[in-house]
Structure formats: structure tokens, C-alpha cells
Amino acid sequence: MTSALDAIRAAVGDGWSADPAVLAPHLVDWRGRVHGAAAMIVWPRSTAQVAAVVRAAAAGRVPLVPQGGNTGMVGGATPDGTGTGVVVALNRMDGIGAPDLAGLTLVAEAGAILANVHAAAAAAGAAFPLDLAAKGSATIGGLVATNAGGVQVLRHGTMRARIAGLEAVLPSGAVLDQLSPLVKDTSGYDIKQLLIGSEGTLGIVTRVALRLVAAARTTVVAWAGVASPVAALALLQRLRGDLGDVVESFELLPLAGVELVAAHGLKPPLATAAPWQVLIELASVRADPGLAAALADLLADADVLDAVIAQSEAQASELWRIRETLPEAERRDGVAVKHDIAVPVVALPAFVAATTPAIEAAWPGSRVLGFGHLGDGNLHYNVRAPAGSDSAAWAAANGAAITTAINDRVIAVGGSIAAEHGIGSVKAGELARVADPVKLAAMRAIKAALDPLGIMNPGKVIGRDGTIGNGNVVRQRGP
């Protein structure tokens, strides 16, 4: 072990630390629920250094935990409690190449921050259409590892759809070079697709060729109130049918979510206390001054209780700020039992109508807060403790049972227990419980083939034995 750590240190020069104070922020997840330990942290500056680290780790069977912005929600970038692993922080590999406007691609290193990629694309007159609240700290490698989604999936797809090529270091230390941004390539298995969404369990992503789009010249942002998720989905269908392929985002929030944000200082956008509210963004590559008028006419004619259309970029930003602030406002309000679920879009209104009263009846006083990306069926479906209670104690006592009840309903309608946050360590047990056994067997076979020593982010996704991790709120310590 000592010689292996020495070899890893030698691979990165002075880019390492074993100082407990330096390690501390890298040993806990963003939500503060999953804690671990590590022998040290390293900051490689190149793919060659990453490969040298991995080779040294393989020789000594030292576990490696890749980490980017550490904004994950399921403990996927947190080491276990053994203290034998090494955190591989990619944030010093943050280079961003010049956009290729002919091919609409851009190559970025794994540690590049999403907001900086946005800025680089915009400076060249293009856009990288993947956006989320953590864009100021989330890194490209982490987004690849979790197949991140965000608020533009409705039109542009998840991270998987935005990747043209990829470079990664495999568990053997060999470098996989699929960085060339080919539009067509049928030369055998597309290995890079295995790495997308693998949460660092099959290798360490080092560089990515991202697919860009032409920058929008017209953007319209609106907020509307509706009576129900059924009415919200009908509005989305009408927007797409009447206005065409300009619907960039369509976010669904309950009134309770808007009120929670208002309690933390942001004024509700509507005078009407509509029970459900939607944030709409339309974007067109054309200069289209009539788009806002067309949206206003549609909202006036649709089954909408109240609506407002942003009249300036500042007003549009304020509307988006309400949506982006909701997770943090919820976190400040207390511990909740959180779920990142996906169900078929057509099934979402019925799922909410059936599941919310069932959960609130089974756990009296609990308050369901479901919000998110209606157009792609992804809800952040969270259950808050009864008002005035000790939320942490309540969640610890009830979280596992609540999660089981919700996940069973998700699977029953053909959904997924992990829409965009991944599995990590927190959901590995639930994945083993509810996933298709054939899929799980294939996943384990792939893991065994590519990482026979089990050094890549052990305990994540499928766990060490397929049963690790058994709750969404329990503070986890150790493997």
C-alpha cells in the first residue's frame, strides 16, 4: 500500500495532499449525508498523469474515486469509510478548446466548469444546450459520469446526446481515444457510451468533444399558473403543436414550492395563487419579434389561470432564479426524503394524483413537494417532514420506508428511480432491489470485464455485492 501511494504521488509531482483539512471538503457529498475517508487526494494536470495514477493504483490495488465539482446528490463522488482510497480531483484539468463552428463541437477537459463552457460557446456565437442550477461548479467530467440532464433536456436531450467524442483512462491505465467527433461510426462497439453514466466505475473521463447548437437570437420566458399537472401537460402539448420546435424548457412547480422560495425572499411571479405553476422558455435561432406575441395569444386562449411574460432579460433571469433557488430553499427548510424519479410523460399527471395523497396519508403530516422537468417526465419528488417536527430525526426514521413506497410506484408505471442524479452509493441497494435482473447481470459482467480488480469507485452504482446502500436519507458512514 505504501509503495503504491508513493507511486501515485510520483505520478502527479506536487499535485497531492494528505492534509486532513485539505481532504475534508472532498470527503462529504453536497447534501452532507454521505461521509467517507481517503488516504490522500491528487490533482492530475493531464491525461498522461491520470493514466500514471491509474496504473500505479492498479499495481497496488488502491481504490480510486474520481471527483469533479462535488455537486452530486447520491454520494457518487464520495469515498467509502475505509480510508484506503485516493480521491482523483479533475478540476485542474479545466482547459476549453476553441469551438469548431463548422462541425458545431467543442473539446473540453473533464475539470472544465459548465458555466465556462457556456461562455466559450457563446463567445463564438454558439451554445452548449445543457443547463442546471449547479452550472457554476459542476464539471464536464461529472456531467458525463452521471449523464446529467437539467432544464433543456426537453429539446436537446441529456448529456449523452450532447457528446460527440470522448477520451478516458480505463482501469488498466490504458487511454481510450474516442475523442474524434464523428457523426457516423459503425466500427464496432461504441465504448464511450458505456462510460457515459457509469459514475466513474469503468474509467476516468479526461476530455470530451461536446455537441453545440447555433445560438438563439430570440428567447421568450414566461410563468403561468394552471389547475393541475393534467392542465400543465395539455399546455405543453399545445405549445409544441402551435409554435413548433421552439420549446426549450418547461418546468413544473407546485404552489408550495413557490411559497417556500418566497419565504426566503423571492417574490412570487403571479398574483393568483395557482395550485400548479410552469416556467416556460422558448428559443429560436431566428430574430422573431412575433414569438412573444404568439405565446401571449396562446396563453390567453389556453386553460391558464394567470400568466406573465418577461419583458426584459433581467425579468427572465428573476423567473429562472425562482426555479433554481427551490432546491436550496428546500434544503434550508429542513431535511427531506428526496427522490430523483422519471416516469413516462403521459403517466406523470396520474402518478402525482395517485402517489401524493397516498404518501401523505400513510405518513400523516408529511408534505410532498414534487417539481421538475415535466416535458421529459423527470420529477424531484421529495417528502418533507411534518411542520414543526425534527426533520432530520423524522427523515431518518421514515426515509427508507417512504423511498420503498415511492420507488415501487415508479417501477409499476415503467419509470426509473434515477433520472439525472445517478445511483452513487445512496441508491445502489434500491437499484439492486427493483432493477431488471438481466440488466443488473449485464452491468456486473461489464464491470468485471473492464475493472477486474474493482479499483474504480468501488461501492457505487452496483455496489460491492449488489446490495450496498439502502435509503435516501440515512447518514451513511463506511462502505
Throw out a few tags for this protein.
479 residues; alpha+beta; Uridine Diphospho-n-acetylenolpyruvylglucosamine Reductase, domain 3; Alpha-Beta Plaits; 35% helix
Structural account:
This protein is α+β, with helices and mostly antiparallel strands and 479 residues long. Among the domains are: 105-214, Uridine Diphospho-n-acetylenolpyruvylglucosamine Reductase, domain 3; 218-329, Alpha-Beta Plaits, CATH 3.30.70.2190; 336-421, Alpha-Beta Plaits. It has 15 helices and 20 strands. The protein has helices spanning 2-12, 20-23, 47-60, 114-123, 140-145, 153-156, 191-195, 229-243, 255-262, 291-301, 313-333, 348-362, 391-412, 428-434, 437-450; strands at 16-17, 34-35, 40-42, 64-67, 86-89, 105-109, 126-127, 163-169, 175-178, 204-211, 213-214, 218-226, 247-254, 276-284, 306-309, 336-337, 340-342, 367-373, 378-384, 476-477. The strands form five sheets. Strands 12, 13, 14, 15, 16, 17, 18 and 19 form an eight-stranded antiparallel beta sheet that branches. A four-stranded mixed beta sheet has the order 1-3-5-4. It has a four-stranded antiparallel beta sheet with strand order 6-10-8-9. Strand 8 (163-169) and strand 9 (175-178) form a beta hairpin. It is globular.
